[in-house]
Each structure stands twice: as structure tokens, then as C-alpha cells.
Amino acid sequence: MGKSITHKIIEKHLVSGEMVPGQEVGLRIDQTLTQDATGTMAWLQYEAIGIGEVRTDLSVSYVDHNTLQMGFRNPDDHRYLRTVAAQSGAIFSPAGTGICHQLHLENFAKPGATLIGSDSHTPTAGGIGSMAMGAGGLSVALGMAGEAYFIPMPKVVKVHLTGELTGWAAGKDVILELLRRLTVKGGVGKVFEYGGPGVAALSVPDRATITNMGAELGATTSIFPSDDKTKDFLTKMGRPCDFVELVADEDASFDEIIEINLSELEPMVAQPHMPDQVCKVRDLAGKKIDQCAIGSCTNSSYSDLKNTAQILSGKKTPPETDLLISPGSKQVMKMLSREGLIEPLLDAGARVLECTCGPCIGMGGSPTSGGVSVRTFNRNFEGRSGTLDGQVYLVSAQTAARLALDGEFSDPATWGPAPERIELPDDVPSIRDLFVFPPEDKDSVEILRGPNIVALEDFTELPKTVQAKILLKVEDNITTDHILPAGAEITALRSNIPAISQYIFNRVDADFVGRMKNHGTGVILGGENYGQGSSREHAALGPRHLGVKAVIVKSLARIHRANLVNFGILPLLLVNPADYDRLELGAELTIPAGDMTPGGTLEITTASGDAIPVINDLTKKELDIIQSGGLLNAVRQSQS
Ligand code: F3S
């Protein structure tokens, strides 16, 4: 039986387990990436492990999220990241060099390599055949320490592409179509492996957009073959030696096959406030647009922005419609500048921002109250833009540029000739010198910390019997943005758990933190897909600091589940989803945590004696981690 690309890479990196869907496999990790919002904590954890030099082939610490330096906190954190990377043998990418995923794709990702990153859009590197997964910061810290990364062996879904994109359709529309069909829960436990004759016609940036936003399906990762297009891309990036061909065997078997005819796609849009609320752009014709934002790790490549510049050239956006553009990297910016493509952007009325995440993470560029913001990003969760009632719509770069001119949604049939498909030039400028490579004499590097960097607290073991009240009851599809909102004020506290914990769930229930302080311990009750979205482990660390002992839900998102385990919070799944309605805020629960067996059922009892059956879908190792108070405790125990 032939093998898929996914199986080939996993087999080559397998250190434990068997490739049976659902069973835990341990993978050797070749590369890691961290970004600053999650990275300071990942690096503090790495220091706490006490390993010295990183044991991966390559680890990169990027600064792209919290680049506003409006006080000492962010600059101090950036300095900490630069110095800890230098002492640990990692590469450092300073603020403004670019967005981690765009930079990693351009400069470091390799076909066939394993990569974990403390950012959920790490699968962007799957666009060139890397097995790239988003992970919690602690998992990445352990990866840097040479430890395996453990995941349930995913099912492999082949997305069989035929035809080719026509008209105004773009790579973004492929993933929006998949989100429309499968929803934000449709990819859990799965790798989406692209194949079929349609692959050859998709550029690497289109492929990377698709794998980037596979994260919104909840997928473990997404991956494209490494083929002639990949070879051309790596050659133009000055890295021809990194190319290896990687395709699925002709007779490879897959757990599922999905067909998409690219020729049938047209511009699509994800409507507020979920990436799977997808419809056709033409269905919204006439809706006024207050803001367009082009950029983010999803759509900020040279081809995206060259298309944008060509669409806007010689035209002007209406005064009611703001246009923001954030290039993905200084390499992209240099190419635009060299080709005279910045000027048409400026003349059209655009604000050209730094090469950072910017508006995607609410770092400036928030829409007006209730404003309609059309963005090329990957997420449109409520409040993520920095404006709580902002209405964020997700589209491709060329659709955003065209809509910015109209100032309202319109029918692509009226847009005129479609933009050309952009190829990279042969002489792509290098920005390699902008990275800070570790010095020879690493021991001479002093790690510099500011007052905002607070060492990690020690977490106690999970009690054998947890007695606690439900101190928060939330609905389905709670995102990590609900748990801990993004935005400049809050993320500046990412290295200071006691301070950042004061913001936990404060936009969902402003009294939650107060209740936790009063009671000391508590339980959260949630619905389906709890913890979807960003990989931020502060969404587990914060509740843990406040005293949350267990999260009882209908279902859990993958990375957040891993973060809960890593920080010693017990994730429990309701056997009967209807029990959600029987449990009320304030209900006192007794959880016999000491009696748990891996993957077993457990009965929680309420003060009135009702029994609520729950499952822990935990492995023995995960259970040990939780019972010892978290992964850091478990690693220290195993080392001692
Ligand atoms: Fe940055 Fe937004 Fe991507 S925060 S890493 S551009 S999802």
C-alpha cells in the first residue's frame, strides 16, 4: 500500500506509537518557531527546563505581534527574546522584519521537515510540504529541548483539486469553500493533504494561504506536495538546496477524500463572527464597507500585494472607507518598493503599515463602532479587531482591494478583467542579514529582563477529590479570544501571569475573576468546541493561576486541550450533552479526580446528589501530567 505525504513524514520522525488514527504518536521535531505574544512564556518555560542550547536543527524567535512600544513592557520583552535566543543558539527576528509565518516560509521552512510553532497558523509552512503544527508554548519549549511532540495520530483527508482558478477567485476561496462545507469543527483530528491535477496551477503563496487557514477547520495541519512550484519558490528564495520532492504515492490510501473543482470557485466571504459563515461575495452586494485591511500571515505575500497595487493603481478609495496594508515581510516590502508599487498604494489612500500582524491582533487599525471591516485575515471572532461590535468579513487580497474601491460589497461580475496571476521575480532580494544569528560564544551573552517579566509560579498537584463550584457557564464556540482578549493593553502583560489573569473572560463575564478570587478554586462549564482559535497558552495559564481546576465541556479544540493538560487543568467531556442544561452557575461539584483511569468515564456528583457522567479522553501520560500539576512539574520529576 502506498503512502500519503503525511504518513511519509510522520514515519520518518516517529519516536513512539503506531500510525493508527487516534493513537498517540511522538514525533521528532526538526524546527520550532515562537512569536512574541506566546514566545516570552515559551522561552521562560524553556529556561525553567534548564537545557542550555536548543536541540533542534533550527529554532527561530520572531517578534511580530506586540510591536507597539508605548511603554517599557514590549521593548523589554523584545530585548529578553533577543538575548535568550542568543544564549540558547536560536535565531532572532526583530520587530518589523515581518510576520513569523511569512518569514518562516520565505527563509527557513523545508519540505519534509517537522515544525512546531507557538502560533496556531504555523501550518502556513505546509504550503511547501513541511509538516507544520501549531502547539502550546510549553510543547514548543520542550521541542526546543529535544523532546518529542505528542499528538493523536491524525486521519488523513485528501483534498483532490481539479481545474484551475479563474477570474477573481484566489487561493483564499479554496479554504473558504472548505470552511463553508466542513465548518470550524470539520478538521479536528485530521490532516488535510492536497493533491490532484489542480495543485500544479496553484502558486506557493496560494498554497500557503490555504494551509494557513486550515487552522480554522481545527485541523492538526494541512500540507501540499513539494513539486516544481516548490522548487522554483525555494530557488528564488536563495535556498535551492532545501528542496526535496515530496508527493503521495499513486496508490496511497486516505481516510477521506474531498473533491474541489477550482474552476467552479468564485470570490467568497466569511461573515461575522466565525470563519465558517461563508457565502458568495455577490450575495452581500450593496453592504457598505467602513474599512479594508490587507495583510496578516494569510494574505501578505508579494503576489497578494502586487495584485493589490495593480488593482488600486490610478484610483482612489472613497473617504468613508479606510484602507490599511501590512506587508508580510521586509522582503515583500523591498520588492514592492523596487517595482514602484508603494506609490499607487499611497495614492489610492492606503495607510501602509509595518511588516507585522498589526490590525489582525488589534494592534491599531480597529474598525469604528459597529463598523464593517473587510479583511484578508484568517479570523473574524467577535472583539478580536479591538472593536467589540466590529463586523469583520474575511476575503482574499484581490477581493479586498477591489471592494475598497467600491466602498461597498459588489458583484464580481461587475469588477472588470481579473488581475493577472503574479509570479515571483527571478531576483528576489534577500533579507537574511536582518536576522540575528546566535554568536559563537553563547555563554558570554547575558539574558536581559525587565520588571514585566515575572518568573513562572510553581503549580501544586491536582487534589484527589476536587470540590469546587461552577463559577462560569459559557455557550458553544468559545474562542481563546473570549477567554483572554487580544489587544495592546492586555498582551503587553504576557510575561506576567498574575497581571494578565485579571483579564480572563472579562469581556464574557466581568465578575468571573472576582468570583474566582472569592472562592479560590472553581470549574468552568462550556459547550461545543471550547477553546478554538489562537494557540495562546495564557488562556490556560490565566485560569490556572486563578484556581480553575477543571473545564467540563461538550467538546474541546485541540491546542487548547493540550494547553489545559500542560498546565494541570482537568479537561472533561460531558457524556450526555443535555447535562449541560442541568448544570447551573454556582452548582457545587465533587470530582473524584484521584479515581480516574486513562480514557475512562467518571461520575461527578452535585450537592443535591445528581450524578453527571463525564469522560476524560486522556492518555496515561496526560493524566500523570495533570495529576502532578502540569507538564513542567512532570518534566522536572522525570529529570530528577
Ligand atoms: Fe499574526 Fe494574525 Fe497571523 S496575529 S500570526 S497575522 S493570525
From TrEMBL:
EC number: 4.2.1.3
Keywords tagged on the record: Iron, Iron-sulfur, Metal-binding
Domain Aconitase/3-isopropylmalate dehydratase large subunit alpha/beta/alpha: start-end pairs: 8-407
Pfam families attached to this UniProt entry: Aconitase, Aconitase_C
Record's GO cellular component terms: cytosol
InterPro entries: Acnase/IPM_dHydase_lsu_aba_1/3 (IPR015931), Acoase/IPM_deHydtase_lsu_aba (IPR001030), Aconitase/3IPM_dehydase_swvl (IPR015928), Aconitase/IPM_isomerase (IPR050926), Aconitase_4Fe-4S_BS (IPR018136), Aconitase_4Fe-4S_dom (IPR036008), Aconitase_put (IPR006250), AconitaseA/IPMdHydase_ssu_swvl (IPR000573)
Coiled coil spans: none
Pathway linked to the protein: Carbohydrate metabolism; tricarboxylic acid cycle; isocitrate from oxaloacetate: step 2/2
Protein name: Aconitate hydratase A
High-level lineage: Bacteria, Pseudomonadati, Thermodesulfobacteriota, Desulfovibrionia, Desulfovibrionales
